[in-house]
Amino acid sequence: MAKPKKTPRPKAETPKGFRDYFGAEVTARAEMLQAIAGVYHRYGFDALETSAVETVEALGKFLPDVDRPNAGVFAWQEDGEGEKPGDWLALRYDMTAPLARVYAQHRNDLPNPYRRYAMGPVWRNEKPGPGRFRQFYQCDADTVGSASMGADAEICAMLADTLEEVGIPRGDYIIRVNNRKVLNGVMEVAGVLDPANPDAMEAERGIVLRAIDKLDRLGVDGVRALLGVGRKDDSGDFTDGAGLSDAQSDVIMGFMQAKRDSGAATVARLRELVAGSQTGEAGVDELEEIADLLAAGGYGPDRIEIDPSVVRGLGYYTGPVYEAELTFEIFDEKGRKRQFGSVAGGGRYDDLVRRFTGQEVPATGVSIGVDRLLAALTAKGRMQQSVQGPVVVTVMDRARMADYQAMVAELRQAGIRAEVYLGNPKNFGNQLKYADKRGSPVAIIEGGDEKERGVVQIKDLILGAKIAETATHEEWKDRPSQFEVPRDQMLDKVREILEGQGK
Amino acid sequence: MAKPKKTPRPKAETPKGFRDYFGAEVTARAEMLQAIAGVYHRYGFDALETSAVETVEALGKFLPDVDRPNAGVFAWQEDGEGEKPGDWLALRYDMTAPLARVYAQHRNDLPNPYRRYAMGPVWRNEKPGPGRFRQFYQCDADTVGSASMGADAEICAMLADTLEEVGIPRGDYIIRVNNRKVLNGVMEVAGVLDPANPDAMEAERGIVLRAIDKLDRLGVDGVRALLGVGRKDDSGDFTDGAGLSDAQSDVIMGFMQAKRDSGAATVARLRELVAGSQTGEAGVDELEEIADLLAAGGYGPDRIEIDPSVVRGLGYYTGPVYEAELTFEIFDEKGRKRQFGSVAGGGRYDDLVRRFTGQEVPATGVSIGVDRLLAALTAKGRMQQSVQGPVVVTVMDRARMADYQAMVAELRQAGIRAEVYLGNPKNFGNQLKYADKRGSPVAIIEGGDEKERGVVQIKDLILGAKIAETATHEEWKDRPSQFEVPRDQMLDKVREILEGQGK
C-alpha cells in the first residue's frame, strides 16, 4: 500500500456542484422511486438499467433543455491500443439517449412496442448554482415503436396516478398538454415557417419559442416586444427581436392565449388559429384525440388539461408535449411565496432512434425530476424528516460486551432496530449524548448492580426529552421515564415503550 | 436541434466492459438491495449516498484488491478558470474512499461512532473480461470511530443475517475471520518483519502474502517453493521466491494450516505460533474476543469461523479481516463443478481517514458484491427469472381506443398490471405475438360483434401455451382456455384466471 507521506493532505470536499445525502434523504428517495416503479409496472412498463457510462458517439448532442444551450457532459478518452486512439466515453446526461441506443442495439430481441422505465442519477457538466447540482435523479417511462396517441394519453394518466401515489393530492398538481405540430401550424400561419423550406427562418422561430417561454416573467408587452423589434431590459441590455409584424405577432399571441375553460373549447380555438396549415390541423387532431381518451378514462381537467402556453421542450419534441406542475405555494429562499412549478415533463420524439438506424421510430415518454419532487414534498411538510434511531444498549462494563451484544441480538431478532454503544464507554454522558444524536427512542442500562439483581434499566428517551422541555408541566411531572424490569422482560418492556411512542 | 446529417451513423453499442440490465435483472437487484438495507438498518446503520464523482485528490490510490495492482479509475479534468487549472475528477471505485472523505468533511456534525451503509454502482477502469464488468454494485456497512472488537463481531453477525435474509440458507455459506496482526506476528517470528524497522523486507512480505493466497491453486509444495527459491510453472515461466529458509517457511506454513476444529483450538494454536511477538499476541487476543462475542450471540462455527488461511485483503486491512464464501457447488462456464466462492469481504482499516485529518480514526466495515450474490442465487435457481407480463387488451377497432383504455384503467385500478396494445393493430397475429413476448398471462378481445352483444373474450395465455405444448394430453384437452363473459364481469374473470395461474 502506497503511503502518501510527503504529499500535502487532500481536501475533504465533494467536487463543486455535487453533494452527499444522509439518512432520511436517502431512504425517502428510495421509497419514492419504489412507489413510482410500482405505478410504472402496473401500466405495463418493464425495468431497464443501462450503465452510467456511454460512448460520446452513442450519446450524441441531444440535450433537451433549450434554455441550457451550454449544458455539457462529463467526458474522457479511453487509453488507445497501439496506433488506435481510445473511444471517448461520457456519463449519461439523461435516460432518453441511452434508451435510443438500447433500442437500436437490441431492437430485434425487444417486444414491439418496447415499453420501459428507468431510474437513476444523470450528470450534467454545467455551472453549479444554489440548489442546482450536477448529479440528480430522473425516473423515466417511454413507449418506443408506437405512433398511437393512446401511448401519449396513457403517459399523462400515469403521471397523474404517480403524483397521487407519492403523496401529491388531486388539486395540488396539474398536467398540461400541448403539441409541437400546433405550434408549427401557428408558425406557418404567422409566416415564420415555410413547409416547403423548413430550415429557413430557424433563427426567428428560436426567438419566438424563447419569447413564448418568458410570458410569465415578461408579460404580454415584453413578449410582444421580443416578437417584434426587440426589448431593452431594466439593466439596459438589449435583446434582439424576431422582427415579426404586428399581424404576425397577433397570431403567435393568439396561440399563447388560446386556452379556454374546457378542453373542447381550447381545441376549437386552436383549430381556428391553424386553419390552412396541414401540420397544424394534424396537431389539433392529436390534441383532441388525447383529450377524448383522457376523458374516457376519467381524467378530467382537474388533473390534465390542454394548455397552449406550455412550450418548454417544444423545440425538442415532435408532437404532443406534456408537463406536470405542482400548483401549491411554497416560500422561496428569500421568503417570497411562489408556485412550486414543474416536476416532470415529456413528449413525443419520433426521430431519436433514426440517428442509429436510419429508420424513423415513433416514441413518447416522460421524465420525473425525483429530487425536485422530493423537495416539493419536503416543502409541504409531507416528508419524513428523520429515520427513527436505534435502541442503544449502553456499556457500563467493558468486560461484559458479550452480555450487551446478546441484548441487541434479542431486540434485532424481534425486528427492533438496536445497537450496542461502540465508542469509548468510559464517559457515560457521551453514551447518552450519542443516543440523543442518533434520535434513539430507548436506552438500556445494565451495570454491575443490575446484573447482580437480574434486572435492567430502560430509559424512554422521547418521554425524557418531553419532560426536560416542559419540566413544570403537570401532565409529565409524575410520569416516570425510566423503568427497572427483570432482564427477561426487557424485550416486552421495550416493545411497550416503542408502541406508546408511536401513538 | 442540430441534425447530424453528414456524420456517419453512430454505433449502437455499450462501451467495452459495460452492459444493460433488463426487467427481472433490475427488479431482482432492487429487491435484494432493499432486503440488505433492511438488515443494515436493524443493526443501527444509517443510509449515506455520496455522489458518483469525487476529486481524484480525495479518492487517493487505495484500491483494496492486492491482486489487481493495475486497477485504475475513470478520471477527467475540469475546465479551468483563467490561469487556474481545473480539478481532476473521477468516478468512485469503491464506497470506502468516499466514506473516508465524508467522515473527514462532516466529522463535527456526525454521531461518533458513525455507522453508515451505502449501496450503488462503483466503477473500475480495468481490462474487461468475460463476466467481468467495469461497473458493478457494492453494498457496504462501516463503523467509523470505534476501536471495539464488538464492532467487528457485529459486522460478521450482520453479514450472516444478511445472507440468510436474501435467500442463502444456513449451511450454504461460511464467514471466515482472520487478523492482520496475527499475520504480522507470524512474519516477525519467521524473521521477515522487524518491528523496529517495519519498512524493511516489504518485497519479501509481498511475495509471502501472494504465495499464501495461492494455497488453493498451487498446493503446499507450490507455496513452499514460492516462500523459498521460487517456482517454475507448467509453461516454464519462473516466479521469484521470497528466499526464506526452511525454518522460516515452516512458520508461515504453520500459520496457513493453523485451523482446528473449534475456534478456541485455532486461537490456541495461533497463540503458540506468534509467541514472543507483541503484535501477534494482540492479534490473537482480538480474534479470541471476536470468537467469544459471536459465541455469546449464538453465531457458531456453522456460520462464522476463525480461519488463518484467509489472506485476501490482509495487505490492506490493519486488524480483523472477514470474508463470506458460498459453499455450494455450481457449474462454471466449462461445465465443471466448482464452489461459488467469495461474495463479501471486509475488515478493520484504522488509518484511512488519517490522509485527510492527520488523526488516526479506527474503522471497520464490510462490502457485499451484490452482482455476484445475484449470480449465485440465479445459479442455484433461487431467483425469479422473469417479471409477470401485463394483461394485454387487444385492439380490434382502432376507433374504439377509448373503450380499450377504459378496460385497462379498470384493471389497473384493481392493482392488475395491464396495457392496451399500442403497436399497429392491423395484424391481429402480431398482437398475440406481442402478448407472448411480454409473458402476458391474459389477453382480452372485444371486436364489433362482442361490443354489440356486451361481452368480451378473455384468453388464458398460460393455459393456452400448455395446451399447445401437450396437445394430445388428456388433462388439458377438454379445458377451455378462452372465455366469453359479459363486459361488466371482465375484472372478476381476469382476477379468477390470474389466481388460478398463481397456484
TrEMBL record, chains A, B:
Its EC number is 6.1.1.21. GO terms for molecular function: histidine-tRNA ligase activity. Its main location: cytoplasm. It comes from the Bacteria. It catalyses: tRNA(His) + L-histidine + ATP = L-histidyl-tRNA(His) + AMP + diphosphate + H(+). Signal peptide: none annotated. Residues 1-390 form the Aminoacyl-transfer RNA synthetases class-II family profile domain. It is found in: Cytoplasm. SUPFAM superfamilies: Class II aaRS ABD-related, Class II aaRS and biotin synthetases. The keyword Phosphoprotein does not apply. Keywords: Aminoacyl-tRNA synthetase, ATP-binding, Cytoplasm, Ligase, Nucleotide-binding, Protein biosynthesis. Belongs to the class-II aminoacyl-tRNA synthetase family. Homodimer. NCBIfam families: hisS (TIGR00442). PANTHER family: HISTIDINE--TRNA LIGASE, HISTIDYL-TRNA SYNTHETASE. This is Histidine--tRNA ligase.
